[in-house]
Amino acid sequence: MEVQPDMAMGAAGCVFSAIFGLVALAALAFWIWMLIDAISRTPSEGNTKLIWILVIVLTGIIGALIYFFVQRPKNPPKT
Predict the structure, then answer these.
(1) Degrees (nearest 5) of the Cα angle 13, 23, 4?
(2) What is the rounded CA–CA span in Å between residue 33 and residue 40?
(3) Where are the domains of the chain?
């Protein structure tokens, strides 16, 4: 029996779709985590909180990454 090209690409397509779906799900979870973090933890100094929320909402995962590396408050050291 000869393997059809469509069958071989079908299996690879399923694997690719599964991996892409997991990455997309992880990105969505990270985006939601950063949005909740910005809403609940960022100190409200002027319009800073509102601006960070808008950056995260309007720029998506890029804004969430920027918030994570630039603005996200660090946990205070335990004494």
Answers:
(1) 5
(2) 11
(3) 5-71
